[in-house]
């Protein structure tokens, strides 16, 4: 059954980005659900969150509701091309509404990343990422020890390191040469950003897929300013003692609909398209 609260209705939040087309779709959905007795439209405490825009919009919407992951199911409507977190395009709103009315609470869930940043003065900051988290040093080469589950693997020298979720593997991770990982694989991926490799400095070079339950630890070896990025946000830290990455015990859930588009179809649509023989 659809998750219902005391009012007996599914609570639905509609969140659109600033584009004209997104706002238009939002008001169309709003009008359709406003008088439907099975739905209650509210941005507070929703059961279903409809994100209208692109994958970037879904990232923002995810962080708005990340405290309610146990309850919320997301659905993305893309005003543009298909995308990875979006199941419907703007011309498919009628089909979306039909499926929403048939919804019985089905969901499809994907892994998230958990990170902790420990500063040199002992502060600990934790965060959750849907796409990826990275540690970079801009002003000079980042020198850092990389350990996986307690095994000291390498001393890294370069711009930084990115750790991505399976669904985030097609984002920044892919641009820096990481592998594309199917989102039903319960694992995460560490990818180097411009590592120095020569007769003196050595890193593995390839990206690494790490299973659930294991932890990646990066310990910077130089005093200075570091940039920590979590999805679409970046933070600057004076000195970072270590940053740890592991799969979260919570997942992100999406409304599972009959028209749910397969991952490889999205990969093809986004990166290959139709190629002439
Ligand atoms: P943005 O700079 O507006 O968007 C970056 C692009 O990444 C957009 O085309 C976005 O799609 C796409 N994207 C987001 N998540 C994706 C995913 N899981 N798979 C494939 N493509 C994805 O920034 P934003 O919209 O706030 O998104 C932040 C994300 O952008 C970061 O998490 C990072 O992964 C990515 N990024 C990539 C690079 C790079 O490749 N060099 C640099 C910076 C950031 P939409 O157009 O549908 O929003
Ligand atoms: Mn974007």
UniProtKB/TrEMBL annotation:
<comment type="function">
    <text>Involved in the regulation of the intracellular balance of NAD and NADP, and is a key enzyme in the biosynthesis of NADP. Catalyzes specifically the phosphorylation on 2'-hydroxyl of the adenosine moiety of NAD to yield NADP.</text>
</comment>
<feature type="binding site">
    <location>
        <begin position="131"/>
        <end position="132"/>
    </location>
    <ligand>
        <name>NAD(+)</name>
    </ligand>
</feature>
<feature type="binding site">
    <location>
        <position position="159"/>
    </location>
    <ligand>
        <name>NAD(+)</name>
    </ligand>
</feature>
<keyword id="KW-0521">NADP</keyword>
<dbReference type="InterPro" id="IPR002504">
    <property type="entry name" value="NADK"/>
</dbReference>
<feature type="binding site">
    <location>
        <begin position="170"/>
        <end position="175"/>
    </location>
    <ligand>
        <name>NAD(+)</name>
    </ligand>
</feature>
<keyword id="KW-0808">Transferase</keyword>
<dbReference type="InterPro" id="IPR017437">
    <property type="entry name" value="ATP-NAD_kinase_PpnK-typ_C"/>
</dbReference>
<dbReference type="Pfam" id="PF01513">
    <property type="entry name" value="NAD_kinase"/>
</dbReference>
<feature type="binding site">
    <location>
        <position position="157"/>
    </location>
    <ligand>
        <name>NAD(+)</name>
    </ligand>
</feature>
<comment type="similarity">
    <text>Belongs to the NAD kinase family.</text>
</comment>
<keyword id="KW-0963">Cytoplasm</keyword>
<feature type="binding site">
    <location>
        <position position="194"/>
    </location>
    <ligand>
        <name>NAD(+)</name>
    </ligand>
</feature>
<keyword id="KW-0067">ATP-binding</keyword>
<feature type="active site" description="Proton acceptor">
    <location>
        <position position="55"/>
    </location>
</feature>
<keyword id="KW-0520">NAD</keyword>
<keyword id="KW-0547">Nucleotide-binding</keyword>
<feature type="binding site">
    <location>
        <begin position="55"/>
        <end position="56"/>
    </location>
    <ligand>
        <name>NAD(+)</name>
    </ligand>
</feature>
<dbReference type="InterPro" id="IPR017438">
    <property type="entry name" value="ATP-NAD_kinase_N"/>
</dbReference>
<dbReference type="InterPro" id="IPR016064">
    <property type="entry name" value="NAD/diacylglycerol_kinase_sf"/>
</dbReference>
<keyword id="KW-0418">Kinase</keyword>
<dbReference type="Pfam" id="PF20143">
    <property type="entry name" value="NAD_kinase_C"/>
</dbReference>
<protein>
    <recommendedName>
        <fullName>NAD kinase</fullName>
        <ecNumber>2.7.1.23</ecNumber>
    </recommendedName>
</protein>
<dbReference type="GO" id="GO:0003951">
    <property type="term" value="F:NAD+ kinase activity"/>
</dbReference>
């Amino acid at each position: 059954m659809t998750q219902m609260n005391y009012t007996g209705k599914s609570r639905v939040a509609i969140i659109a980005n600033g584009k004209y087309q997104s706002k238009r779709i939002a008001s169309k959905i709003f009008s359709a659900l406003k008088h439907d007795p099975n739905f209650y439209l509210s941005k507070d405490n929703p059961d279903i969150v409809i994100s209208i825009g692109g994958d970037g919009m879904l990232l923002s919407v995810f962080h708005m509701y990340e405290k309610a992951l146990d309850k919320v199911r997301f659905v993305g409507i893309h005003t543009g091309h298909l995308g990875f977190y979006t199941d419907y395009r703007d011309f498919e709103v009628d089909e979306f509404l039909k499926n929403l009315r048939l919804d019985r609470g089905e969901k499809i869930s994907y892994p998230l990343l958990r990170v902790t940043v420990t500063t040199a003065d002992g502060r600990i900051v934790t965060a959750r990422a849907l796409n990826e988290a990275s540690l970079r040093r801009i002003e000079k080469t980042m020198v850092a020890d990389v350990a996986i589950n307690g095994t000291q693997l390498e001393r890294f020298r370069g711009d930084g390191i990115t750790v991505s979720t399976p669904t985030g593997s097609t984002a920044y991770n892919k641009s820096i040469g990481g592998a594309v990982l199917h989102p039903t694989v319960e694992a995460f991926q560490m990818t180097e950003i411009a590592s120095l490799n020569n007769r003196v400095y050595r890193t593995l070079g390839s990206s690494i897929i790490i299973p659930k339950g294991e932890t990646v630890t990066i310990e910077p070896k130089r005093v200075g300013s570091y940039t920590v990025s979590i999805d679409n946000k970046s933070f600057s830290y004076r000195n970072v003692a270590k940053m740890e990455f592991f799969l979260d015990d919570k997942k992100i859930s999406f409304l599972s609909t009959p028209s749910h588009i397969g991952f490889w179809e999205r990969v093809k649509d986004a990166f290959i398209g139709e190629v002439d023989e």
